[in-house]
């Protein structure tokens, strides 16, 4: 088995089990008619749909995260070539990380990491 | 069909229970929590996760629609139970399990009696940071897990931030009998009550509040520890049996750096503000944020436990505070605590709001006393 | 030395994962029973498994205007991604697929839970579930980067992204010994992507179980199983990354993998009860200002060792 075959087979197996559980439930459940329920509202009925424009007050953190996530794309291949490239690889990577970290410190000072 | 019946019976061995406490149902709730803990049955938070609906406490016509609604939202197999007294809890749970195991297959009507227009979308409004975002109207309580039974706070949410909060209108209840303040009520009526009994009740009340706070703070293990101590106290355990365990609890929770870091600065209430609002008791003496209040509970509990053997002194209901403050039938301490909530909740996140409510833990059974007295007078 | 790609590993890997997950659930139940003063019995600790018959017999439940497709997709993603992560986790001398980018694969599967849980929160059109779904994103922003650097630390130590290479490169000196911080951060990350214990914030009791609150039947079972499958997968991954994989004296490799995985799992289950919920609004600051810089310094250690003679 090569990697792709293995990954796809494992996915197929997992989905098969999920489908099997759903199928078993379909065959065994006490009633086929679905219950029309309301979302939990502490004993009250909801007065509006819940899906709404949600205020993610931590959106600045997502910006920081994105910067580091892109950095990760470089870092994975970097781990493979450290001893080949020598000290320059390590120096360049950690200078880059230092620049990003100074960004984190700036964002922290500006209060981007607190939102409550 | 055989297999379904077998599975239904198997699943019914350890049902999960949605515990709904009616106003005035505190002793029944305590019995139910104890029973569920001893049996190892799960306590559900929502109808979706529940097999049994247990309505604990006296009937309250004004709130009857709440349990009905929760019941309508539970899918089968399900059983609805009612326990009006603490003694009824264990047999009712046994009965519920038996009936749950006998659930039969069948076409159950799927028609929703409430009709299905679907609610409108949330409308926009300016939020606390000056952005225009949807406003969601939500009610916290009366029936929410680890929430003062019957308390209603109506909130306007933007995201998970509470933009506005107001207390729900008080509702009519039956004869009010606030469990936690009973020794003070009896002493006020002239009955001789030993101070040891009052201290026991007050320590148990603080442990009950602490259990609720721990549960809301996402620390179920310590919630269980606090509630076990509470139940042992109420069963009359001697001081030397509970004091060492309480000291360990106080060390684990009171000195927990993580809990402190997670709760400091939430729900600030200075002693001056508390007195101005008519609050007495631990919340006023703590004069601070959530950690100040739970630490006050812990130290008060330890003090009370050292007085459990004092059977000679009689309770002076004026000098000794009831669990939530100085007892006054006209203005019970929980009324002042509840009155603080809208101001303290506005601008907080849901998680912080739950911590604030749990750290003040007003007892909605107490304000009911006032309404009853007013009605009589 | 390590055997990859045997067809029989395909069913065995998920079965082992399930076994470890059940073991973890039983361990947690035993600790809970002890804490609640109940007697601990071998049968009693397995009672959470009654959730299986319960899920199978439950009547389906429909909520108004719920997004059933995305909801179910989100729910299914969590356990399926956990199973897929076992593709690259060696057990003893066997692994399903010895990918050259195994660490990246594990990381990618774990990040799938972000989408899964958010969808699971969005789907039911319920206020508390929605809050729970967003809570996981905020939590993800806190735990993910330190976790990535912890994984990179191990990869840098071996100069390979192949998990079996990392396990083989430890030559008796485990990475957990000289990279203890990366090991600790990895375990923290495991708790976080399993959203259990102190990281159960997205399914918190304060918001009526959040993402779990409106799920019922098989969906509820899959989502809850997904948490424990992820805990087991994270514990199993810690063994090749930080504890030398199947290497050890006396016992065969599979036995060492088993012992080490169970020990890591035991440690994680024990920690579950020790801390309150770490709310993201407080934890993010700690994660970015303390854990992240420290995790980066931790990567520097193996990088400098790589340069050494």
UniProtKB/TrEMBL annotation, chain A:
Its main location: membrane. It comes from the Bacteria. It catalyses: a quinone + NADH + 5 H(+)(in) = a quinol + NAD(+) + 4 H(+)(out). The chain crosses the membrane at residues 58-78, 90-108. Signal peptide: none annotated. InterPro entries: NADH_UbQ/plastoQ_OxRdtase_su3, NDAH_ubi_oxred_su3_sf. It is found in: Cell membrane; Membrane. Keywords: Membrane, NAD, Quinone, Transmembrane, Transmembrane helix, Transport. It is an enzyme of class 7 (translocase). It is a multi-pass membrane protein. Its EC number is 7.1.1.-. NDH-1 shuttles electrons from NADH, via FMN and iron-sulfur (Fe-S) centers, to quinones in the respiratory chain. Belongs to the complex I subunit 3 family. This is NADH-quinone oxidoreductase subunit. It comes from Streptomyces camponoticapitis. The lineage of its organism: Bacteria, Bacillati, Actinomycetota, Actinomycetes, Kitasatosporales.
From TrEMBL, chain B:
Residues 103-124 are annotated as: Disordered. InterPro entries: NiFe-Hase_large (IPR029014). It comes from the Bacteria. This is Asparagine synthase. It comes from Streptomyces camponoticapitis.
Automatic annotation (TrEMBL), chain C:
This is NADH-quinone oxidoreductase subunit H. The chain crosses the membrane at residues 12-31, 69-91, 111-134, 141-161, 173-196, 228-247, 253-272, 284-305. It comes from Streptomyces camponoticapitis. It comes from the Bacteria. Belongs to the complex I subunit 1 family. The keyword Transmembrane helix applies. InterPro entries: NADH_UbQ_OxRdtase_su1/FPO. Keywords: Membrane, NAD, Transmembrane, Transmembrane helix. It is a multi-pass membrane protein. PANTHER family: NADH DEHYDROGENASE SUBUNIT 1, NADH-UBIQUINONE OXIDOREDUCTASE CHAIN 1. It is found in: Cell membrane; Membrane.
């Amino acid at each position: 088995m090569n990697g792709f075959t293995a990954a796809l087979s494992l996915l197929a197996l997992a989905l098969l089990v999920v489908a099997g559980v759903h199928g078993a439930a379909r065959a065994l459940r006490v009633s086929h008619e679905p219950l029309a329920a309301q979302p939990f509202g502490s004993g009250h009925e909801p007065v509006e749909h819940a899906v709404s424009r949600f205020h993610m007050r931590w959106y600045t953190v997502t910006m920081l995260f994105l910067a580091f996530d892109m950095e990760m794309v470089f870092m994975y291949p970097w781990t493979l070539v450290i001893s080949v490239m020598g000290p320059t690889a390590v120096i360049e990577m950690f200078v880059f990380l230092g620049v990003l970290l100074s960004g984190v410190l700036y964002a922290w000072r500006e209060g981007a990491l607190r939102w409550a | 069909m055989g297999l379904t019946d077998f599975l239904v019976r198997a699943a019914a061995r350890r049902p999960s229970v949605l515990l709904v406490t009616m106003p005035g149902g505190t002793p029944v709730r305590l019995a139910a929590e104890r029973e569920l803990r001893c049996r190892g049955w799960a306590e559900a938070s929502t109808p979706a996760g529940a097999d049994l609906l247990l309505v604990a406490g006296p009937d309250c016509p004004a709130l009857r629609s709440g349990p009905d609604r929760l019941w309508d939202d539970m899918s089968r197999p399900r059983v609805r139970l009612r326990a009006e007294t603490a003694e009824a809890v264990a047999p009712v749970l046994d009965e519920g399990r038996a009936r749950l195991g006998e659930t039969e297959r069948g076409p159950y009507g799927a028609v929703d009696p409430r009709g299905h227009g679907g609610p409108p979308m949330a409308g926009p409004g300016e939020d606390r940071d000056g952005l225009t975002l949807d406003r969601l109207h939500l009610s916290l309580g009366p029936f929410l897990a680890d929430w003062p039974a019957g308390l209603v706070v109506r909130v306007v949410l933007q995201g998970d931030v509470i933009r506005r909060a107001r207390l729900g209108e008080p509702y009519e209840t039956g004869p009010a009998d606030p469990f936690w303040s009973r020794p003070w009520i009896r002493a006020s009526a002239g009955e001789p009550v030993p101070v040891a009994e009052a201290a026991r009740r007050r320590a148990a009340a603080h442990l009950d509040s602490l259990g609720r706070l721990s549960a809301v703070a996402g620390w179920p293990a310590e919630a269980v520890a606090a509630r076990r101590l509470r139940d042992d106290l109420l069963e009359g355990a001697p001081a030397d049996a509970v004091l060492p365990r309480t000291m360990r609890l106080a060390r684990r929770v009171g000195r927990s750096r993580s809990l402190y870091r997670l709760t400091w600065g939430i729900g600030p209430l200075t002693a001056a503000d508390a007195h101005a609002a008519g609050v007495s008791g631990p919340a006023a003496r703590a004069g601070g944020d959530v950690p100040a209040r739970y630490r006050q509970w812990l130290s008060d509990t330890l003090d009370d436990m050292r007085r459990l053997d004092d059977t000679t002194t009689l309770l002076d209901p004026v000098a000794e505070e009831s669990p939530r403050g100085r007892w006054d039938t006209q203005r019970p301490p929980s009324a002042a605590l509840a009155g603080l909530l809208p101001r303290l909740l506005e601008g907080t996140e849901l998680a912080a709001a739950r911590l604030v409510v749990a750290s003040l833990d007003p007892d909605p059974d107490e304000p009911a006393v006032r309404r009853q007295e007013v009605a009589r007078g | 030395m390590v055997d990859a790609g045997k067809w029989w590993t395909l069913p065995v890997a998920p079965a082992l994962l399930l076994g470890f997950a059940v073991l973890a659930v039983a361990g947690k139940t035993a600790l809970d029973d002890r804490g609640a003063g109940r007697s601990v019995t071998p049968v009693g600790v397995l009672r959470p498994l009654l959730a299986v018959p319960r899920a199978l017999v439950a009547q389906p439940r429909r909520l108004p205007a719920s997004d059933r497709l995305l909801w179910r997709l989100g729910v299914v993603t969590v356990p399926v991604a956990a199973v897929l992560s076992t593709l690259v986790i060696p057990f003893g001398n066997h692994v399903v697929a010895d990918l050259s980018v195994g660490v990246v694969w594990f990381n990618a599967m774990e990040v799938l839970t972000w989408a899964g849980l958010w969808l699971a929160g969005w789907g039911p059109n319920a206020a508390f579930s929605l809050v729970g779904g967003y809570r996981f994103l905020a939590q993800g922003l806190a735990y993910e980067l330190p976790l990535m650097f912890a994984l990179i630390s191990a990869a840098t130590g071996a100069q390979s992204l192949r998990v079996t290479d990392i396990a083989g490169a430890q030559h008796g000196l485990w990475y957990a010994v000289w990279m203890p911080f990366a090991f600790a951060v990895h375990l923290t990350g495991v708790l976080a992507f399993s959203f259990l214990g102190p990281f159960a914030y997205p399914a918190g009791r304060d918001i009526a179980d959040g993402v779990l609150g409106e799920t019922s039947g098989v969906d509820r079972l899959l989502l809850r199983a997904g948490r424990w499958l992820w805990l087991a997968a994270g514990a199993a991954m810690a063994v090749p990354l930080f504890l030398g994989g199947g290497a050890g004296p006396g016992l065969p490799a599979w036995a060492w993998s088993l012992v080490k995985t169970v020990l890591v799992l035991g440690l994680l289950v024990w920690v579950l009860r020790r801390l309150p919920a770490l709310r993201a609004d407080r934890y993010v600051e700690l994660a970015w200002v303390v854990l992240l810089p420290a995790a980066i310094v931790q990567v520097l250690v193996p990088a400098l060792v790589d340069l050494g003679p």
